[in-house]
Amino acid sequence: MRLFVVLFLAVFMAGCDPVSRVMKSKDPAYKLGKAEGFYARKKYNWAQAIYEEIMPFYKGRPEFEDIYYKYAYTAYYQRDWLNAENLFKTYTEVYPNSSRAEEMNYMRAYTFYRQSPKAELDQTNTIKAMGLMQTFINTHPGSTRLKEAGAIVDACRKKLEIKDARAAKLYYDLGQYRASAVAYEALMNNYPDSDQSDNYKFMSIKAYYLFAQLSVEEKREERYGQVIDACVDFMERFPQSSFAKQVQQYLSLSQNQLKSIAHESSKTPA
């Protein structure tokens, strides 16, 4: 008896499914009208199913472009970013001269942005989003979306900067000072407009100094010289920095170390 009730309810619910009822129709125009209605009511999963059903019939017809356009958005609105990205891309390939091509180019890049994870995770999608948005900016100089696209590029770049900064700090915390110094130098060079540039340069000086301290004797002179060069470069680049006083201290410490090394060398018999 219980099994009968379950089967009855399943058949009843299937009969009540509006998509199932629409699918039974042999009239493509009727199905399209229903899909459009579901789309307008934001029933994107229902609209998507019907669009898929009727697209083969409408392929090559004038209605197909609008169907495909909305079909792509049904994936996007259901947060199916991977499928939406592919559909937006295909739209621009099939209809490169469409008035909607600019929008589709933007939305393709935007789907990668929506897939961009937290800074500590793999940033492949962030890099793709930034690259595609920059391409959009370059190829659509008159677009009304330029401000949004630029903001997304900046947000992606900031996330990449945060990830790289955390990696440099991790090297430092683990005592891998040479790797940390190189990473901080790369940060400064890769993000020259960052408000943390002087901090990155200062951290590279600290790391180079600790690396020199831990070096074998025959390498210390060269490495303290590297610290001095970095300090001089810092003072030229960031003379007003809040780190300037500390950098001056590292400069003095390194110069004193070189004097000490030279003094010890002079005492060594020839």
Description:
- The protein is mainly alpha-helical and 270 residues long.
- The chain has a domain at 175-270: Tetratricopeptide repeat domain (Serine Threonine Protein Phosphatase 5, Tetratricopeptide repeat).
- The protein is built from 13 helices and no strands.
- The protein has helices spanning 2-16, 18-23, 28-40, 44-58, 64-77, 81-94, 101-114, 124-139, 146-173, 177-190, 197-213, 217-237, 244-267.
- The longest helix is centred in the middle third of the chain and has 28 residues, at 146-173.
- It is rod-shaped.
- It starts with a helix and ends with a helix.
- Residues 3-15 have low confidence and may be disordered.
Main beta sheet, described? none
Mean pLDDT, to the nearest integer, reads 92
For the record, the CATH class of the domain at 175-270 is Mainly Alpha
**CATH-derived architecture of the domain at 175-270:** Alpha Horseshoe
Q: Strand fraction band?
A: under 5%
* Count of strand segments: 0
What order do the helices and strands follow? Answer: HHHHHHHHHHHHH
Radius of gyration: 31 Å
Q: What's the name of the CATH homologous superfamily of the domain at 175-270?
A: Tetratricopeptide repeat domain
For this entry, what is the oligomeric state of its chains? Answer: single chain
